[in-house]
Amino acid sequence: MATTATPRNNPRSLIPHPAPNILRQALQTTLLNPLETALLSAPTITNPLPTLLTFYTALLTKWTAPLLSSPSAPTPSQVAILLGLAKHTNLLTQTLLTTSPTASTISLILTHLSSLPLLVAPPLSIPLPPPPPLTTYLIIFTAPSLSTLSRLCSLLTSWKVAFESNASTARDQGQIESLNAALMDTCNLLFRSRAFNAADGHALGCLIPPPVVTSLSTYTSGLDPPQPLTSLFSLSHNPNVSALSITAFREVEDSAEDKQPGSVAVRHAGPITTKSLAQLGREGGVKMGWKEYRVLVLRWLEDVGVSGIADFGAATMPGMKGGQDAVARAKAGVA
């Protein structure tokens, strides 16, 4: 009696697989739901949600390795399970950010979310949803350190690259709009001095209601000196980056003065804005445009190891690349 050979690459391909949704539901009801219930009700665990997210990150890593090493594409069942897990952990991360936004918790969240683009990019090309824009906003406004902000920027860059590497793959329009909103609003905060602007294409204004934006703008304009709300999260004003930004500019001033003594008649006191740079140039200080200043800061951050923000700027603001020559001229003390 003749036998049918089993394909070498997939020795179980002739065995019927359960329907993807049935398998996903079975995993959820027999393993994951009981596990969550046990953790949440355990009297010895005071904060079970970070423990739960750590478990899901380890589980995802365990599943990812064989998928990457397999010569076969992920099965529909595997895709369904990973989609369900990604959607579930997106809700879990938002819960953590609104209930326990500590440095350690945010680090766990970024570690988990950073493991997903590997599944989205080729060769696996699994259409997992990106982190909701709200997740990005919550991390930005509770970021306790420069490291956290840089890791968030790296995460957004990874998702952007993963999506673009699958440009020919059909993707849910809602996922594209979700990622674009997070990218645009983060650019508006850090690079464009357009914080909370919902009029730009794709931007959601960080989901801040317009009346709140108006009230905040009124408050900041009444400060002494007045401060425009739209620029208070930029490279010059962001609490995690501002000190480094002015340090980068002062190095340019020092370099220009060293090469041509007396060429820097006035030094910038900070924080740097578009208007202050123009005024500085007129008064005999370093001549540098706003685009060149942002390029300078991003390159300086990259040189000191804060590559996440620099990579994000390069990935989302390609127009800033043209400012490198002007930065070199400023360092040389040449107008």
TrEMBL record:
<dbReference type="GO" id="GO:0000939">
    <property type="term" value="C:inner kinetochore"/>
</dbReference>
<protein>
    <submittedName>
        <fullName>Uncharacterized protein</fullName>
    </submittedName>
</protein>
<dbReference type="GO" id="GO:0034080">
    <property type="term" value="P:CENP-A containing chromatin assembly"/>
</dbReference>
<dbReference type="GO" id="GO:0000070">
    <property type="term" value="P:mitotic sister chromatid segregation"/>
</dbReference>
